[in-house]
Amino acid sequence: MFDKLEDLLVRFDELLNELNEPGVAADPAHFQKLMKEQSNLQPIVDAYREYKECHQTVEDSLAMLEEESDEEMRELLKEEMSTAKKRISELEHELKILLLPKDPNDDKNVIVEIRAGAGGDEAALFAAEMYRLYVKYAEKRRWKVELMNADEIGIGGMKEVNFMISGQGAYSRLKYESGVHRVQRVPETESGGRIHTSTITVAVMPEVEEVDVVIDEKDIRIDVMRASGNGGQCVNTTDSAVRLTHYPTGIVVYSQTEKSQLQNKAKAFALLRAKLYDIEQQKAHDAEAELRRSQIGTGDRSEKIRTYNFPQGRVTDHRIKLTLYKLDSVMDGDIDELLDSLIAADQAAKLAKMGEE
C-alpha cells in the first residue's frame, strides 16, 4: 500500500508542475483532464502527508523522551505521541478506503425511474411520494432535477416517472436506491382501517454519453404525437411528444415534458441510452457472481431493499439491518443517514474482500 502511495505522491507533484507550465490551458480538454486527475488525487495525498507527519511526530517524541528528565515535559511528549498514534490508526483506515477501486460511474449524473408495483392506486401514490422524496433530497444537495416523463393518475399518483438528477457525486450516493421499496400503511380509501402493503421499483442509472452507447438508427422507431395528461403545462396542441421503440430489446421510452419536439427527442434518447447501458451493466454484474456477494445487496432489481412502515413511523433497510424511527423526515428527503450507512457497509465489505485476496 505504501509503495503505491509514494507513487501517487510523485504523480501528484508531476501534475502540479504540468498544470503550471505556460500554455497548458490552451488545450481545454487536456487541461480539464489534468485538473480532474489532480482533484481525485488530492484527498489521498492530503491524508498520506498527514500520516507521514504523525509518524515523524512519534519518532521525534521518542527521541526527546530519551533525553528529557523534566517530568512535566515528559508527560506532554507522551500525550503528543499518544494523539499522533491514534491519528495514524485513523488515517490508515481512511487511506485504505481512499485506495479502493473507484466506480467509474460515481461522478456521473443519474436517470431515475420509479414504477408502481403491487398495490394499484396506493402503489402509484407511493411512487409519487418517492419522486418528491428524491426531489427534496436533490434540493438539499443543490443538485438539479429535470422531469423526463410522468404517467400520472387522477388522484395525485404516478404509475411511472423518469427524471434526471445532475450534480457532483449524484450516482455515488443514489446508486444504493435501486431495488424494490415496500410501503405498509392504511390507505385513505380503506374504511376498515386495515394496513395494506404496496411496492414500487426504483432504478438508478448513470447518464451515459452518445459515445458510450451507440444506437443504430435502423433499430429505432420514432413516433411523434400530442402530449397527453391531466392538464397543465405538459399538455399542448402540437405534436411535441416523442416515443422511441428499440426493436432489439423491446424497450419503449416516452418524453412529453418539453414544448419542443427536439428537446423531448433528446430526453427520450438520453433515457434510452441509460436503459441500454443499464442492461449491459446488469449482465456484467450477473457474470461477476463473487463480486456481487461482496457488495451491499445483490444489485438485483427484484430485491426488496427497504420497508416504510407508516403506523410505526419506521424505515428499515433490509440490506444492512438498519431501522430508523424518523419516517416523516425520511419522506421529506432526509436520507443521508441511510445512504452514509450503506456506503460505509459497502466499503467495509470491499475492504474485507481485499483482505482475503
Please tell me about this protein's structure.
The chain is 48% helix and 20% strand. The protein is built from nine helices and eleven strands. The chain has helices at residues 2-19, 28-67, 71-98, 120-140, 170-174, 261-287, 289-294, 327-331, 336-356; strands at residues 110-116, 144-152, 158-166, 179-185, 196-206, 220-225, 241-246, 251-255, 304-309, 314-317, 322-324. The strands form two sheets. It has an eight-stranded mixed β-sheet with strand order 2-3-1-5-4-9-10-11. A three-stranded antiparallel β-sheet has the order 6-7-8, covered by helices on one side. The radius of gyration is 26 Å and the shape is globular. The two termini are 14 Å apart. Mean pLDDT is 84; it is low at 230-237 and 290-295.
